[in-house]
Amino acid sequence: MPQVEVPSRYRVPTQGEAEIDVAGRTVRECIAAVEARYPGFEELVFDGKGRIHRFVRIFVNGEEVPRDDPDMPVGGSDRVQILAASAGG
Fold first, then answer.
1. Which structural domain, as residue segments, surrounds residue 12?
2. CATH of the domain at 36
3. Do the domain assignments include residue 89?
4. What is the pLDDT of residues 68-82, one digit of tens each?
5. What whole-number distance in Å separates Cα of residue 74 and Cα of residue 30?
6. How many domains does the chain have?
7. What is the pTM of this model?
């Protein structure tokens, strides 16, 4: 079962969960599975058109997911890591 790693700043919807086992065959399905359990999570990762937010990077086992391919396949033991850029000023 794939596992989604949630960055600390995105853990409000996941009620503090940092690693979530999900059923999914693609990156998008994994994020949707987290959303099904923790409403409000998916909008942090994808914009209204289903694209990866410009300030979010997603990796599968350390390999960056192309911004135009959130439907990249994942396997049962894969780790989907979400990194959220932070800005300050």
1. 3-84
2. 3.10.20.30
3. no
4. 899 999 999 999 999
5. 9
6. 1
7. 0.91
Pairing of strands 3-5, 19-21: antiparallel
Cα–Cα distance measured from residue 52 to residue 77, given in angstroms and rounded to the nearest whole number: 23
Please indicate, yes or no, if residue 18 is contained in any of the structural domains.
yes
Q: Which residues of 52-82 are buried (b: 16+ CB within 10 A; e: fewer)?
A: beeebebebeeeebeeeebebebeeebebbb
Q: How many CB atoms lie within 10 A of CB 89?
A: 2
Residue 77 maps to a domain: yes
First vs last C-alpha separation in the chain = 40
What burial class does residue 41 get, using C-beta atoms within 10 Å of its C-beta: 0-12 exposed, 13-18 middle, 19+ buried?
Answer: buried
Looking at residue 23, what is its pLDDT? 94
Q: At 80, which helix (H) or strand (E)?
A: strand 79-84
pLDDT tens-digit map of 9-62? 999 999 999 999 999 999 999 999 999 999 999 999 999 999 999 999 999 999
